Amino acid sequence: MERAKMAEAESLESAAEHERILREIESTDTACIGPTLRSVYDGEEHGRFMEKLETRIRNHDREIEKMCNFHYQGFVDSITELLKVRGEAQKLKNQVTDTNRKLQQEGKELVIAMEELKQCRLQQRNISATVDKLTLCLPVLEMYSKLRDQMKTKRHYPALKTLEHLEHTYLPQVSHYRFCKVMVDNIPKLREEIKDVSMSDLKDFLESIRKHSDKIGETAMKQAQQQRNLDNIVLQQPRIGSKRKSKKDAYTIFDTEMESTSPKSEQDSGILDVEDEEDEEVPGAQDLVDFSPVYRCLHIYSVLGARETFENYYRKQRRKQARLVLQPPSNMHETLEGYRKYFNQIVGFFVVEDHILHTTQGLVNRAYIDELWEMALSKTIAALRTHSSYCSDPNLVLDLKNLIVLFADTLQVYGFPVNQLFDMLLEIRDQYSETLLKKWAGIFRSILDSDNYSPIPVTSEDMYKKVVGQFPFQDTELEKQPFPKKFPFSEFVPKVYSQIKEFIYACLKFSEDLHLSSTEVDDMIRKSTNLLLTRTLSNSLQNVIKRKNIGLTELVQIIINTTHLEKSCKYLEEFITNITNVLPETVHTTKLYGTTTFKDARHAAEEEIYTNLNQKIDQFLQLADYDWMTGDLDNKASDYLIDLIAFLRSTFAVFTHLPGKVAQTACMSACKHLATSLMQLLLEAEVRQLTLGALQQFNLDVRECEQFARSGPVPGFQEDTLQLAFIDLRQLLDLFIQWDWSTYLADYGQPNCKYLRVNPVTALTLLEKMKDTSRKNNMFAQFRKNERDKQKLIDTVAKQLRGLISSHHS
Q: Are 387 and 341 within 8 A, CB to CB?
């Protein structure tokens, strides 16, 4: 029962569901019926639903049939009307077709005209669009054409500006065109082209500058010379102090209007041709150089954002050029032109760098310039030290000094420190002094070799004044003497004195423009003059004095000459004082050593006189030919000795102009040497035997010498002072000739001994020679009593002399 109820309930539910689905199918759009049908197939009442569906379809068919049957008569009527309308419609169609044909025929021309109008309208619109587009494109093309023209004419900086304007202003407006893309793609290439071309111009400029640095430097140094000459004219005296032009003055001279933002010339020649004409104003460095390539390249690289690259490249290349410029040629020391070209190149290099420093902003800076200058200064000084050391010509050294001063003055105008150059000039000054000393050594040697060593004869007042004008000499007695007369000195005195003054002038020339104080100049001149006197002149005099062929007359004249030169030293002191304006009383003033030099030369000449006299005496003594075994006596002195005495008399007669002490010393020295030589002649080992007769002949020669000494060949000796030179010989000869051995032996050793100057050794030597003679020449002496007694006496005396010698040594 319950089951039947439940089944009934389920049947009612499914029936309700099927009804709902059918209503949805009837009311729902066909496109959305899918989900509804799916709910049917998902259920288990498919069969029953289909039955419901069939039933619903039959119901609808019946309703349709009822409706059709209800409206059939009306349908038939409508069809009948429609058939009538079809006939009318056909007529209307024919009329419309006919009307259309007529209309087409009538509107054909209008259509053609309208078609033409349409084409015109289209063309007009296209033309308008084209004009608009061309209006935008033409400025771009014009700018590009202008850019190519500027590139073609090498106006690279304006080209770069045009390129920038084209890229940022014009091309963005027409960026969608293909030709614009081509232009945009070419812009980096154009920039690189401009960059490369400007760099090529810069390289050409640098190469041109390197080749023409000497011309630029020559011009700058000429202007510095002109300014210095102008300063000298204004001051009306040689410039010793430092008078520098200011930086402003330098740039007034070199002033040239140049635009730093754009090149003043599109022709990149680098160096302009300038002819040197003395009458025309010397052109400035900027008149010779076209710096526009540098400015252009700098601006171009700055615009391209590569300024640092450009600065590094420029500085690197200029450093390389600086090293080349600072490398001196190997033969620079041979001529002044070699030094001049070297200095011109250096000045030209730094004039260009200084101008770049002041006309560009940061391309080079002061630190970079100072670094280059330090390098240049050290290399220049080293080169000058090396090459100047080869200079042996003082004129070349002096010219080099003037060139270095001009070089330093020129660079100082541009603000470069040059103190080290002036310090180096002080070193060259020492070398200059050495070359002067060598030159004056030759001058002195020539003067001394060509001198006749005779007093200067003068036959007129003019000749006398000429000599006095050359040498400060005053002698009242000589002035009173009538012409012709003679100066006491020979020609080399005024010549040497004049050359010493010339040397001082030469030293003074080197000190000019070195910015030295008067005291420093005075000290330099005095030291150099002292070297001239103590070394050069002294050596020259010594060489003359030591010459082998020099005679006594020449030596006597040298002594007289040096005496007068010694007196002239005070005038040399005054001369130096006058040209330096430094009083000799000033503290630390160097004194001249001329007095010492001439004294030393005079003493050397005196010694040479003594030596020369002694040599002459030795030459005469070599003519001595004593027969030591003779028993005869000539009763006159030997011929050689008579000639020797005559020579000494004539020689000492020449000594009248010598100082008394010199003549007396020479005479005493000659007599002592003669006495010593005679003693050696008597005692020499080759004379093994001698007789009393030979000793008496020798005594005659000694008496002749004593007679010469007593005659007073040179005034000034007291009584028998000169005879004392022969006292040793006299006492020895008296002892043997008088055979006064008892007195000698008895008084030996006493202060008042008669034979005080006789040495027992000398006496024994001479006695042995007489003893050997007595033995050998008298074979039968033992048979004669007197001879035997004499021989015994000689033996006894010899024995006693040996005793004296032994007791003396003990």
A: no
The pTM for the full model equals 0.64
| 80's tokens | 């009948």
Cβ 609 vs Cβ 659: under 8 Å: no
Provide the residue ranges of all domains of the chain, joining segments of one domain with +: 14-62, 177-230+287-416, 434-594, 623-738, 741-809
Token match 């007068």: residue?
564
CA distance 778 to 359: 122
* Residue range 434-594, CATH number: 1.10.357.30
Q: Residue 805's closest CA among 768, 777, 770? A: 768
Say which residues have a Cβ less than 8 Å from residue 731's Cβ, sequence separation at least 6. 754, 755, 756, 757, 758
pLDDT tens, position by position, 749-790: 788 888 888 888 888 888 888 775 555 444 444 445 566 667
Whether 625 and 565 have beta carbons less than 8 Å apart is answered as: no
Give the separation between CA 622 and CA 256, rounded to whole angstroms.
93
CA angle 750–754–759, rounded 5-degree value: 75
DSSP string, 715-754: TT--TTTGGGGGHHHHHHHHHHHHT-HHHHHHHTT-TT-T
Q: Which of 23, 95, 79 lies closest to 52, judged by CA?
A: 23
Taking alpha carbons only, the member of 203, 199, 206 closest to residue 297 is: 199
For 623-738, which CATH superfamily applies? Dsl1p vesicle tethering complex, Tip20p subunit, domain D (1.20.58.670)
Do 244 and 413 contact (CB within 8 A), yes or no?
yes
